[in-house]
Specification:
It comes from Lutibacter oceani. Residues 13-121 form the Pirin N-terminal domain. InterPro entries: Pirin, Pirin_N_dom, Quercetinase_C, RmlC-like_jellyroll, RmlC_Cupin_sf. This is Pirin family protein. This protein has 240 residues and is an all-beta fold. The chain has one domain: Jelly Rolls. Helices cover 0% and strands 56% of the residues. The protein contains no helices and 22 strands. It has strands spanning 2-6, 12-15, 19-23, 41-49, 54-60, 64-71, 73-78, 85-88, 91-96, 101-107, 114-121, 131-136, 147-152, 161-163, 168-174, 178-183, 189-197, 199-202, 205-208, 212-216, 220-225, 229-237.
């Protein structure tokens, strides 16, 4: 098993006033040649957006974009006729940019900030028809068990959102002093594990809030939660 630890304190940062961003991988003005991607995972941004602010209309193409609000509410508009759609904490949004789409993502509150994860995954199909979807996922359904949020559009319906890549995004909330065994789709896949809250032990490595670890060249691994912990798993092909 091959592992690489990504400490929260070593992420790229940017403060634009209205936006405070933490970049797990090279993005915008932050560039680190050792942190360009993890397999097909290209972007994992941990953004805090001020009340009433956000990302104005801008274009994307040939990218699978996933947004997970952790606190607050987002407002989405795009060139696919989706206008002012709210995305609440507990929901997940996906957008296949494909042949090209324009969209905006704004804080839906005039008084409260929003904290969200923005994830980009490189697709396995180019120039697809753009598509959009969102879904609410109950917290109770991931208590000490894996909750799949996003999976491949080529797989059977399992209640998750679908993207154009052989990937899987999932969450689990582990109780203190509990264990969980994660099984990968294949040894050609890797998993980027982000600690949203809490503390875990993997391969004798202690990871705290917003620390992450990339794991590959294995079929499974064990996570031990030393505190009540919320985890995000992003499993992607390492060669694409």
């Amino acid at each position: 098993m091959k592992t690489k630890i990504y400490k929260a304190s070593e992420r790229g940062t940017a403060d634009y006033g209205w936006l405070k961003a933490n970049y797990s991988f090279s993005f915008s003005n932050y560039y680190n040649p050792e942190k360009v991607n993890f397999g097909a995972l290209r972007v994992l941004n941990d953004d805090i957006i001020d009340a009433g602010m956000g990302f104005g209309t801008h274009p994307h193409d040939n990218m699978e974009i996933i947004t997970i609000p952790l606190q607050g509410s987002l407002k989405h508009r795009d060139s696919m006729s989706n206008k002012c759609i709210p995305i609440q904490t507990g929901e997940v949004q996906i957008m296949s940019a494909g042949t090209g789409v324009q969209h905006s993502e704004m804080n839906n509150s005039p008084t409260e900030f929003i904290n969200l994860f923005q994830i980009w995954i490189i697709p396995n199909k180019q120039q697809v028809q753009p598509r959009y979807d969102q879904k609410k996922f109950e917290v109770s359904a991931r208590k000490n068990k894996l909750q799949v949020l996003v999976s491949s559009i080529d797989e059977a319906d399992n209640g998750s959102l679908k993207i154009h890549q052989d990937a899987q995004i999932s969450r689990i909330d582990l109780s203190e002093n509990s264990k969980f065994n994660y099984k990968l789709k294949s040894e050609n896949h890797g998993v980027y594990v982000m600690v949203i809250e809490g503390e875990i032990l993997i391969q004798n490595a202690i990871l705290n809030k917003r620390d992450a670890i990339g794991i590959e060249q294995t079929n499974k691994f064990e996570v031990f939660a030393t505190k009540n912990t919320e985890l995000l798993f992003i499993e992607v092909p390492m060669k694409f």
